[in-house]
Amino acid sequence: MSGFSKDRAAPVVNYFTPKQPVPAGTALDPQPNGKKIPKLFESLKIKDLTFHNRIGVSPMCEYSSKDGFPTDYHLIHYGSLALRGPGLIIVEAAAISPEGRITPDDLGIWNDEQALALKRVVDFVHSQGQKIGIQLGHAGRKGSTVPPFFHLKEYAKPEDGGWQTVAPSPISFRDGVLPAPRELKIDEIKEIAEKWGAAAKRSIEISGFDFVEIHAAHGYLLNEFMSETSNKRTDAYGGSFDNRTRLVLDVVAEIKKNIAIAKIPLFIRVSASENLEDVDESGWKIEDTNRLADKLILAGVDVIDVSSGGNSDNQASRTRASVKEDLHVTLARQVKNHVGNRALVAYVRGLKTASVAESLLEENVADIVLVGRNFLKNPGLVWEWADQLDIRVTAAQQYVWGFYPPPL
């Protein structure tokens, strides 16, 4: 029997597309050649959510929104990735408020209408049996810039849709290029934490995302509060380590109030080091990250997504001769060694080959690998990596039959 029947439409969406028997990117078990399934293609369960492999699409800003709303571009962009089988997709940083955007063209989720528009993207991804989350962020003093494909260091003027940026302290990220931000008041800081919680609630209850990630890296607002290089406050949100990390923990607490945290995974991206050790001793270091990780785990965070830098132009170069020598490998390994089985660790940066990605998991550097630019270059990266490891994975029915035709 062919399996052809009237019950062949994918669920969730209100238009016809074939139902996928299993999510694309799932390793055949057993493998036709008898090989053991590599760790990259083992499933991973976090709370009530199961990812069918451990290869994720890293959040990458697309600068393709008007007034924070997604467009058909987002449906095509994320939909095409979902068809090709990553274990998880993390949607680009969505601003929790208008002034939280990096550029005027950033995605937002500060109102219900934006969340409802995102549901169309989520529904398609779910119709393919895939998992999708969203990164929630606030750009702080690095906001109100122009999209980087126009200029890497240009401020968006008010007539171009720009705005007054805010931060823990009135310190410009780039003196002479970006204006100094306005220092946030105590009541405004508390409101920001509440807005993060409200954005998480919209993400889950209206959009239908499977999980959320807090953006606390790359010199954006939470990172600015955490670091002494950008936070010169003397009140409850500055000075000591506990004070500087108060906001990020408040954000976690607000999210816990607003979503079913016992069932829904919570990720956080951190700059594990600001890469300033040689020029500024006050910069955030790996020791600070491990100290914060203990608090985040107790607060309910499941996955620590390890990145670095972004809070100072004086940071050291992250470029290394090979990925295995990359600074992020060292940082992820140190975080994983510290947290052990108390939390999962995601690695991101520069992965191009399956063998290197597999080795990071096998060596317990990380539990998940996230890929950004190489998914842009090759949306079929999951299938290519399976080929490199000499294993078979499922693919969308519309694609796979041309490679592995059914019997006549």
Span from first to last CA? 11 Å
Named CATH architecture: Alpha-Beta Barrel
The CATH top-level class label: Alpha Beta
Main sheet specs:
8 strands, parallel, barrel
Portion in beta strands? 5-15%
Keywords: Flavoprotein, FMN, NADP, Oxidoreductase
InterPro entries: Aldolase_TIM, OxRdtase_FMN_N, YqjM-like
Cofactor: FMN
Domain NADH:flavin oxidoreductase/NADH oxidase N-terminal: 39-386
Description:
It is built from 12 helices and 12 strands. It is of the alpha/beta class and 408 residues long. It has a single domain (39-400), classed as Alpha-Beta Barrel (TIM Barrel). An 8-stranded parallel beta barrel has the order 3-4-5-8-9-10-11-12, surrounded by 6 helices. The chain has a two-stranded antiparallel sheet with strand order 1-2. A two-stranded parallel ribbon has the order 6-7. A hairpin with a 2-residue loop joins strand 1 and strand 2. It is globular and about 75 Å long. The model has no long low-confidence stretch (mean pLDDT 96).
